[in-house]
Amino acid sequence: MATLYWRGGAPAVAQVDTLTPSNVEAGDVFTATINGKSVSYTAVGTSPSVADVVAGLVSAWNASTIPEFMEITATDSTTHVTLTADTAGKPFTVTAAATDGGGTDDQDLTQATTTANSGPYCWDTVANWWTGSAVASAIPVTGDTVIFENNNVSCLYGLAQSAVTLVALHFRASYTGYVGLPRTANSGASNQYHEYRATYLAISATSVIIGDGPGSGSGRIKLNTGLAQTEVLVKDTGTTAETNVPAVLWKGVHSSNAIKVDRGTAGIGFFSEDGATVGSVTVGEASLTTDSEAEVTLGLLVTATLVYNLGGTVTVPVDCSITQYAGTCYVTDDAAITALTLYGGTCYYDSDGTCTAAHITGTIDFRRDARAKTFTSVTLYNGYAWLDPSGRVTVTNGWDFSRCGPQDGTFQIGDHQTLTASAI
Questions:
Q1: Is residue 289 packed enough to be buried (19+ CB in 10 Å), middle (13-18) or exposed (0-12)?
Q2: How do residues 405-419 score in pLDDT, each as one tens digit?
């Protein structure tokens, strides 16, 4: 199949929709809705006409201070309302409805798109794609390889591509545009609203590579790989485009998904409404000696099996197993950890979830969270640090010291404890 390159830059075409009322009677209500917000007009008079409804809807629309409506201009076309996007290349979605006012219940308001949106930031605009020698004849299809490199043109619209499964999807570090939309849309400084357009590029891919090669990288890549099993490698990211939001946001639902983040910032099922399923998450590069510049956050609705920290920073609010060689891990909320193995680095256990089995050579710190917690089995190794000076942790089976003793690490367990020595 083909290898296609994102070029962007296609001519911008403004979307045009029409709203056509019919069978108008007094009291009938005609309503247009965007993003759950509406404007409406109620037909009045003894014998209201279609033209009356059109004029009333146009007046109500253009007088609205709702940000979503302010992005579109309504025009009176006598038999219908014409809606034209103020920004060519930026799509909108409007729905129409009519309700009976007490006469014959056959009134209607029909919506139709007469000119489809297209433009320089649209995945679904053919002219944005390049074969390497010419403009592509079609947008990417199943079996293709897609590469974003050497430009800064964002890909923001036409992102619903879930029927497509790519062989590979590459966002090289030389690509500095954005992929996907923020959750909050801006229609002027005081006109923000929760974005109703698709904010993630929804497309399946067997392999995803982000941030390889020279360049400063993208500050926003939002990707939903859906049902397909995907291997995602994040070599690096750009500086995040949004405060407190990672540069790369990924979600998918295959149980064998594998995500590795060498450097940069990434979120897995990051937002509270997102979910994701992942078999393994690997954070940092495999030096095992120094902390890396990788920061990964798992969301509250993520289903994860294994988290490996090779030296980055990872936040884990969900049930899983964790193996850490270096770096920092934050176990938060009520995450229950099946197996926690700390060869090095620090784990801040800020959860009240139970840890079934812990093997500690690094540092585990309970001082940040005041809730009681339970560890079933704990094995400590030479050089360990167990920091629980307030005695918040109940260790069901006691602490096992493997080839070491309490003097071979930092052992803080609080006051008024009874320890009974026995061989292991």
A1: exposed
A2: 999 999 999 888 878
